Amino acid sequence: MTHRSDRLIDVRALARVEGEGAMHVRVRDGAVAGVRLEIYEPPRFFEAFLRGRRHTEPPDITARICGICPVAYQMSACAAIEDACGVTVPPSLADLRRLLYCGEWIESHTLHIYLLHAPDFLGYPSALDLAKDRRDLVERGLTLKKTGNDLIEVVGGRAIHPVNVRVGGFHRVPAPADLAPLRERLRVALDQALETVRWVAGFDFPDFRHEHEMLALTEPGRYAIESGTVATTGGLGFGVREFEDHVIEEHVPHSTALHAHLAGRGRYLTGPAARYTLNHRWLSPLAREVAAEAGLGAECLNPYRSIIVRAVETVYAVEEAIRLIDCYEPPSEAAVPVPPRAGTGRGATEAPRGTLFHRYELDAAGLVTSARIVPPTSQNQAAVEDDLGRFVAGRLDLPDDRLTAECEQAIRNYDPCISCATHFLDLRVDRG
Amino acid sequence: MITLAVWKFASCDGCQLSLLDCEDELLAVAGQVRIAHFLEASREVLPGPYDVSLVEGSITTAADAERIRAIRDASRVLVTLGACANAGGIQALRNSADVAEYASAVYARPDYLDTLATSTPIAAHVDVDYELHGCPIDKGQLLETITALLAGRKPNLPAHSVCFDCKRRNNVCVVVAHGEPCLGPVTRAGCGAICPAFGRGCFGCFGPAETPNGPAEADLLRAHGMSGDDIRRLYRTFTVSAFAEVAGDAS
């Protein structure tokens, strides 16, 4: 047993991820003996205190699980409550929800590409350091991100924790004149998003291929965002109401996040690469064209290339927002009534980092008696740990500081949202 | 150049994200301060002491109670960000519940968890110099505070109620015009009165204003159709501990 063959790589506080987590890699006799993503974000017990709340409250309350993707929480919560109450919102309100969600995809993807992930590929500790050399690049990202945030503000009232969403629709719907200035900015944003795809496509991507089953919502005719049924790359297909028959969560000792796997099948991956692989034919012609130009094929199996998928999805979200604004006619009612009834409702939507499932049980008075939330990061945790084990195994000759930096970059491929997953990361490589 | 550190405790990351959401000002701010610790934005971590620490989140573990003391000791000025840091956040709903029952409701193995029975504000543990309110904070107030600290003056932060901002914004009063129950009369301004602007009653995410009239607010809410349970739920959301006194019997 040599000194080099046994070691511990330990990232105690992962940077440029959302929330708090750590990673521990144990190496014994020159082989990876174990990888753990530790989610030490303290538990906040949302599913517990949702009990006893009115059926109208989960959209505002669950938004507070994540400051980066509050719209995703609001949309999945609305879908689940409306399912419990037997209400379907009219297409005009569903379209307005999709428009709001496009704002969040633009904001969250751009945050991840420019501020969290790109500095790794370019060798900077942060985007602020990158800006000292390439201010133009960072300014482009910030402008694009701002357009996404401003879209959320106009439709949702506030960029973080929007106030305008309610079960059944919205408190107030925008006037066409409110959306017109956004349309002009989205035209500029489309060019910036296309430039972003070409920029990230030129990064140096380590050779890596995963073999996980991938899962995403899918919807014939359009790229699934706020609705759809569940599909996997292994050929599984089921409705959102059957989600819990197929997705099993377990509690592992090192994490306040729960690990999910597919019943009888094992670990899986959700998020941009899964969506692209399952649904790329439903992207817009321009998004498909720029994806092909960036070298994305029929599937995306290299987690590093997920940054290209995020950029392509940003192009799509900008185009889709323009399309929705162009065909916008204010709905006749800002919301449809959602009278409570006893029952169980389930909802799932595509958060920027993957499928987000909610289930609520209501009593006859409309009070929540039970709540369950399955966020993307807990679904991805087992797959991420497996990938990291294989990734480290190929790089054991690297010194600790370099290996640690590369592991952090690898983790960011999955855009883990640790705040969400609490129920995530510190990297530690234990070499004995 | 002052050194700035950003710290996170139990929270959603939204308040510190507000700094990255200052898209027009972020690079200018970064040019004026040395960012010494901001894990959401940078993997570079510099040792203290720090001139200004921005603290997000509430204290829910014994280790975090220790960590905030070390941060206070290393910080010249400590500013808390948002409802979690100032009032314990929505996770403070556990304070009046059985946290063991909460843990067993969410987790298969509560014994794997390490958590306190309470979620408490930063000020319950260490001295706080300035508080930015809101769930999330307002980025205008964040920029005002950073600008003031750079200039060596006190930040100008309002303590009046949302009602004043509604008047300033020319919002139609949702209570008078639409009969919507609204916490605006007892809630601290700072958000720009956005909920009333969107036709809904304020739900108090900035916590109580300086001199709230709790009994009068209770009468107003009851007069607009809210039951005692509904009033109790409304106050017991994002700043439950801060509103306890205003809510009175309703809490």
TrEMBL record, chain A:
Chain residues that bind Ni(2+): C66, C69, C417
Family named by the database record: Belongs to the [NiFe]/[NiFeSe] hydrogenase large subunit family.
Organism: Paractinoplanes atraurantiacus
Residues holding Mg(2+): E47, I373, H423
GO molecular function: ferredoxin hydrogenase activity; nickel cation binding
PROSITE patterns named among the record's database cross-references: NI_HGENASE_L_2
Name of the featured protein: Coenzyme F420-reducing hydrogenase, alpha subunit
Lineage: Bacteria, Bacillati, Actinomycetota, Actinomycetes, Micromonosporales
Co-factor(s): Fe cation; Ni(2+)
Stored Pfam families: NiFeSe_Hases (PF00374)
Sorted UniProt keywords: Iron, Magnesium, Metal-binding, Nickel, Oxidoreductase
Binding residue positions for Fe cation: C69, C420
UniProtKB/TrEMBL annotation, chain B:
GO molecular function (one): iron-sulfur cluster binding
Pfam families (alphabetical): Oxidored_q6 (PF01058)
Keyword Nucleotide-binding in record: no
Domain spans labelled NADH:ubiquinone oxidoreductase-like 20kDa subunit: 12-149
InterPro entries: Hydrogenase_assoc-protein, NADH_UbQ_OxRdtase-like_20kDa, NiFe_Hase_small_N_sf
This protein's UniProt keywords: Oxidoreductase
Family matches, as PANTHER family: COENZYME F420-REDUCING HYDROGENASE, GAMMA SUBUNIT, CYTOSOLIC NIFE-HYDROGENASE, DELTA SUBUNIT
Protein name per its UniProtKB record: Coenzyme F420-reducing hydrogenase, gamma subunit
